């Protein structure tokens, strides 16, 4: 009979996320993970297989707590146009509070791990497609209710919003400046606004 685990898996994944997020995959050793999580290397191997397996679980955990949580709070609870604004305002606020300049673990994974690892390339690509799909649903909803322009297709708007999101998360690692980051989204807000709809959403939350 397998012995029950003697640690809190969620707490271990939280600690692993912080370790990988701060140092990257290559910059994090199993010893670092053991020290950060407070459990032995043997226990980590028994529970997650190896460092790569733990990284995969940690990345999934991070995505559920970040993007998954954010979409759950905004989509269906805010009008589509306002959901987009709230999403970006929270991203900017999160970026400005990132004193260690860790950036986004998903974007970091896209740059560090995904180019050399087919499995992680699929994971990152799938997540980026989910983000783009969220923007597409918001664009389609806003086009239906008249708060988002129909001059551009929902697909094109979703791709543009995704690219701006990635740009913010990368740029904020070197220049976490409020005016700069808000300057990236203000033209996007103007582009989204329908020619016939009055502005209903403030630029800043």
From TrEMBL:
DNA-binding region: 29-48
PROSITE patterns the record matches: HTH_TETR_1, HTH_TETR_2
Keywords: DNA-binding, Transcription, Transcription regulation
Keyword Cell inner membrane: no
Cited Gene3D superfamilies: Homeodomain-like, Tetracycline Repressor, domain 2
Pfam families from the UniProt entry: TetR_C_13, TetR_N
Span of domain HTH tetR-type: 6-66
InterPro entries, alphabetized: DNA-bd_HTH_TetR-type_CS (IPR023772), Homeodomain-like_sf (IPR009057), HTH_TetR (IPR001647), Tet_transcr_reg_TetR-rel_C_sf (IPR036271), TetR_C (IPR011075)
Superkingdom to which the source organism belongs: Bacteria
Protein name according to UniProt: TetR/AcrR family transcriptional regulator
Source species: Ferrovibrio xuzhouensis
């Amino acid at each position: 009979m397998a012995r029950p685990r003697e640690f809190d898996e969620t707490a271990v994944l939280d600690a692993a996320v912080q370790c990988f997020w701060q140092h990257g995959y290559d910059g994090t050793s199993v010893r670092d993970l053991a020290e950060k999580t407070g459990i032995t290397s043997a226990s980590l191997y028994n529970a997650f297989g190896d460092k790569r397996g733990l990284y995969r679980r940690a990345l999934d955990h991070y995505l559920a707590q970040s993007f998954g949580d954010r979409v759950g709070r905004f989509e269906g609870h805010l009008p589509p146009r306002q959901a987009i604004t709230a999403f970006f305002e929270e991203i900017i606020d999160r970026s400005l509070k990132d004193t260690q300049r860790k950036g986004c673990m998903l974007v970091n994974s896209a740059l560090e791990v995904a180019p050399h690892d087919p499995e992680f390339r699929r994971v990152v690509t799938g997540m980026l497609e989910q983000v783009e799909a969220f923007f597409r649903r918001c664009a389609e909803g806003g086009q239906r209710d008249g708060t988002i322009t129909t001059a551009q297709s929902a697909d094109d708007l979703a791709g543009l919003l995704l690219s701006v999101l990635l740009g913010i998360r990368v740029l904020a690692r070197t220049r976490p400046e409020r005016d700069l980051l808000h300057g990236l989204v203000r033209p996007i807000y103007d582009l989204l606004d329908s020619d016939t709809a009055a502005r209903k959403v403030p630029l800043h939350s």
